[in-house]
Amino acid sequence: VSLLIGHGVGAISHPTLDDGSTNPEYVSLCIAASLLSGLLQILMSFTRLGFITSFLSHPVVSGFTSAAALIIGFGQLRHVLGFKLKSDNNLFVVAIDMFSRLGEAHWPSILMGFLVMCVLYAFKTVPRLKKLPSAMIIVFLSTLLSWALNLGANHGFKIAGDIPSGIPAPSAPSIPSGEKLSQLFTAVLILTLIGYCESIAVGLTYASKNRYEIRSDQELLAFGVANVVGSFFGAYPVAGGFGRSAVNANSGAKTQLAGAISGIFILIVLAALTPLFYHLPKPALGAIVIMAVQGLLDYQEPIHLYKMGAWGDFVSNVITFLATLLVGPELGIGVGVGCSLLTLIALTSSPSYSVLGNVRGSNLYYNIAVMEPAKEVPHTLIIRFDADLWFANCARFKEAV
């Protein structure tokens, strides 16, 4: 979503001014995008357009999830390594750049990240520790250590630094007019569709893991209300994020109550506690996210599909995985939906058919290839075509006849 906002709004107004400060018009357009996106999502919810998620098959979601987990993991490595990675939608380009610059790595940060991962692994595997809030404990201890040793100033660690406190006063978003509104709406339309599909992919991942169902139209309404209300407080469009969702799930969250508690805690932190996070070391945060998303790597799904001979689903899974790695999550999920549609078209345009025969002495007709007592009716050919007849399979029907 942030990438789409950056590209869409950035094409209308530059993010910064000549002196390097933030461009107020750019910020205003981002907030307006939030309002427009929210209104569009509410409209889609009322018109029952959530059905578009039916094209997100489980193999597509699995391939997208695995690739997104790798992308997020690599993205967090910049905190563990101590240097900024190259910004590119192609994960392989990012990986090559990272390995070529390992000489720039901050080894104390790597050591901290490795130790945090080991501790989190212990929390996951030791029965007595499983129920403890591991992420919260790590944040507290690492922040305390960073403050006591002044890791940021004395040892070159990257820390969270100053975090603005307080909640902005509500104000009505400023909607542009003319050509800018047209350009912004185009960007918002793409953002809404892709962001929603990506969010539903996140939801379907955890719905499958925890055995519950999600209602797509209800999710649209929830996102729409969040975006509309958020726009009055200076927020830009929201969507379900893999990284934060993984951390939340890894902490034991099962219901919406976790979101309410998280929201209340954030309000308290914004109001009074932001100075306490000044010394929070970023290598610890990066390690927490990496450990959270590694559980999303679903290597068993393509193996299962291959063994089952489900070639359409197998191809959709692999193509979605590779596309997400090569062109990014936003386009990757679109490629996945496209694969699902192409698979559906391929299946309905080349359906199976069979010749039916009558079982003597009855009104029963069966496929003569599998039911030996069934015999063809003299001077009559009966064909069962296993699909609705439409223009894409007319040629197949003629060949069968």
Q: How is this structure best described in words?
A:
This protein has 401 residues and is mainly α. The chain folds into two domains: 2-345, no CATH class; 353-400, no CATH class. The protein is built from 16 helices and four strands. Strands 1, 2, 3 and 4 form a four-stranded antiparallel beta sheet that branches. A hairpin with a 5-residue loop joins strand 1 and strand 2 (365-367). The model has no long low-confidence stretch (mean pLDDT 83).
List its salient traits.
single chain, 401 residues, mainly alpha, 2 domains, four-stranded antiparallel beta sheet, 16 helices, 62% helix, 4% strand
What's the short story on this structure?
With 401 residues, this protein is mostly helical.
General shape? globular
Can you tell me the number of structural domains? 2
Could you describe the largest sheet, including whether it forms a barrel? Answer: 4 strands, antiparallel
Helix/strand/pairing class, anyone?
Answer: mainly alpha
Query: Would you list the SSEs in sequence order as H and E?
Result: HHHHHHHHHHHHHHHEEEEH
Number of helices: 16
Cα Rg: 27 Å
Helix content: 55-70%
- Compute the number of strand runs: 4
In what range is the share of β-strand residues? under 5%
Uncertain segments: none
Q: What is the terminal separation in angstroms?
A: 51 Å
Average of pLDDT: 83
Organism: Hemiselmis andersenii
Subcellular location: Membrane
InterPro entries: SLC26A/SulP_dom, SLC26A/SulP_fam, STAS_dom_sf
Keywords: Membrane, Transmembrane, Transmembrane helix
